[in-house]
Amino acid sequence: MKIYTKKGDAGTTGLFGGSRVPKDDVRVECMGDLDEANSTLGLLRVKLGAEHAWQPQLHTIQKDLMDMMSHLARPSDAKKVNTNPMPAEGARQCEEWIDELEGQMKTASDYFLLPGGNEVSALCHVVRTQMRRGERRLVSLMATDAVDPVIPAYINRLSDLFFTLARAEMDQAGVAEEKWQLFLYKRFKRAEDAPQPEQPAA
C-alpha cells in the first residue's frame, strides 16, 4: 500500500467515518496541534535515553494521545464506531505523577518561570506550550461538536505535568530556575498575610 493517496491534493482530508473536510477545519487543526506535541514528546524521549525512569509513563502518554486523536477524528454524527480505547484515567494518573514529582523537589512551584534551564527542561516546556495550543483548538472544536469530557481534562492536565517535569529535571540536574514572578494567587496571598498598618484611633 502506498503512503500517498492523492485524495488531499485539493486541500481536504478524510475523517473517521468517511466524511471529508478542509485541512484547516478546526477539528483537523486540533488534531494537528496534538500530533505536533506528540512528535516533540517523541524527541524528548530520545533525548532522555531508553533507560530513563520517565520512559514508561511518557510512552503511555504518547499512545493515549494517539487514541484521543482517533476519537477527535470522529464527528459525533459518524455512524462508524471507534473501537480505540478512551484513556479514562489519564487526568488522574497525571495528577498522581505531578504530586509524586513535587514531593521529591526541594522547592515549591510558586513562580512563573522562564522556559529553559537545560535541553530536557526546555523540551518539556515546548511540549507544555504545544499542549496548551492543542487545548485552545480543542475548546474551539467543543463549541461546534460534542467531545468526550475525558479528553479536555487529560489535555489540560498534561500541560501541568510537563511544567512539573521541566521543574523536576532542573531540580535533579541542580540547575537554578529563572523565576519571573509569583503566581497571581500567591501574590494575593502574600499581600493578605503582610502586616497591616495600624489604624489611627477614632
Please tell me about this protein's structure.
Pfam families: Cob_adeno_trans. It is an enzyme of class 2 (transferase). Its EC number is 2.5.1.17. The chain is mainly α. It has one domain (12-76, 85-193): Cobalamin adenosyltransferase-like (Hypothetical Protein Ta1238, Chain: A, Up-down Bundle), CATH 1.20.1200.10. The chain has helices at residues 26-48, 55-72, 90-104, 119-142, 150-173, 184-193, and strands spanning 12-14, 20-22, 111-113, 179-182. It has a two-stranded antiparallel ribbon with strand order 1-2. A two-stranded antiparallel sheet has the order 3-4. Strand 1 (12-14) and strand 2 form a beta hairpin. Helix 1 (26-48) runs antiparallel to helix 2 and helix 4 packs antiparallel against helix 5 (150-173). The model has no long low-confidence stretch (mean pLDDT 89).
Summarize the structure.
This protein has 202 residues and is mostly helical. 56% of the residues lie in helices and 6% in strands.
Topology (elements, then pairings):
Blueprint: E1 12-14, E2 20-22, H1 26-48, H2 55-72, H3 90-104, E3 111-113, H4 119-142, H5 150-173, E4 179-182, H6 184-193
Antiparallel strand pairs: 1-2, 3-4
Helix pairs in contact: 1-2, 1-4, 3-5, 4-5
Strand content: 5-15%
Reading off the top of the CATH hierarchy, the class is best stated as Mainly Alpha
Strand/helix succession: EEHHHEHHEH
Given helix and strand content, the structural type is: mainly alpha
* Largest sheet strand order: 1-2
Work out the count of structural domains: 1
Give the termini separation.
88 Å
Determine the CATH topology: Hypothetical Protein Ta1238, Chain: A
Q: Could you give the count of β-strands?
A: 4
* Percentage of residues assigned to helices: 55-70%
Unreliable runs, pLDDT <50, ≥5 residues? Answer: none
Shape: elongated
The CATH homology group name: Cobalamin adenosyltransferase-like
